[in-house]
């Protein structure tokens, strides 16, 4: 019986560890709601103005990212690595801004099915 309990706990923890935020996290959710759904992030970064206004919290889950403005989800990214590669192409002039945004939208839609 004890073994069954530990096995169940292990399975539950494993499912949170491989959870895909883009499939379950919705815009407007709070940080605590996100943690309940997909667990704590692998890492957290900050982005924003030097004066502290409009500070964004970037929670990373592998290649996926949940972006918070204050305590609410503002955006969920399905593949940050691909987005960064596209950003480099945009900066190098290899793609146009319109194409960049279309591709980002496509990546997020396909990755969050």
Task: Describe, in plain words, how this protein is organized in 3D.
With 113 residues, the protein is an alpha+beta fold. The chain folds into 2 domains: 77 residues, Beta-lactamase Inhibitory Protein, Chain:B, domain 1 (2-Layer Sandwich), CATH 3.30.1450; 35 residues, no CATH class. Helix content is 49%, strand content 20%. It contains 5 helices and 4 strands; from the N terminus they run αααββββαα. A hairpin with a 2-residue loop joins strand 3 and strand 4. The termini are far apart.
Write the layout of secondary structure elements.
Layout: H1 2-17, H2 21-24, H3 31-38, E1 43-47, E2 56-61, E3 64-69, E4 72-77, H4 80-91, H5 97-111
Antiparallel strand pairs: 1-2, 2-3, 3-4
CATH class identity of the largest domain: Alpha Beta
For the sheet with most strands, the description reads: 4 strands, antiparallel
> What is the arithmetic mean of pLDDT?
83
Count of strand segments: 4
Task: Estimate the global geometry from the Cα principal axes.
Answer: globular
How far the N terminus sits from the C terminus, by CA atoms, comes to 37 Å
Helix content: 40-55%
How are the strands of the biggest sheet laid out side by side? 1-2-3-4
CATH topology call of the largest domain: Beta-lactamase Inhibitory Protein, Chain:B, domain 1
The unreliable regions are: 4-17
Concise summary:
Helix content is 49%, strand content 20%. By secondary structure, the chain is an alpha+beta fold.
Brief descriptors of the model:
5 helices, 4 strands, alpha+beta, 113 residues, four-stranded antiparallel β-sheet, Beta-lactamase Inhibitory Protein, Chain:B, domain 1, globular, 2 domains
């Amino acid at each position: 019986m004890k073994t069954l309990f530990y096995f169940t706990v292990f399975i539950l923890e494993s499912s949170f560890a491989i959870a895909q935020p883009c499939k379950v996290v919705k815009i407007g959710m709070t940080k605590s709601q996100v943690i309940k759904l997909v667990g704590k992030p692998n890492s957290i970064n900050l982005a924003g103005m030097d004066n502290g206004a409009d500070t964004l919290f970037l929670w990373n889950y592998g290649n996926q990212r949940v972006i918070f403005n204050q305590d609410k989800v503002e955006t969920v990214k399905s593949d940050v690595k691909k987005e960064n590669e596209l950003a480099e192409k945009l900066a190098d002039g290899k793609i146009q801004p319109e194409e960049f945004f279309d591709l980002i939208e496509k990546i997020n839609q396909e990755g969050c099915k």
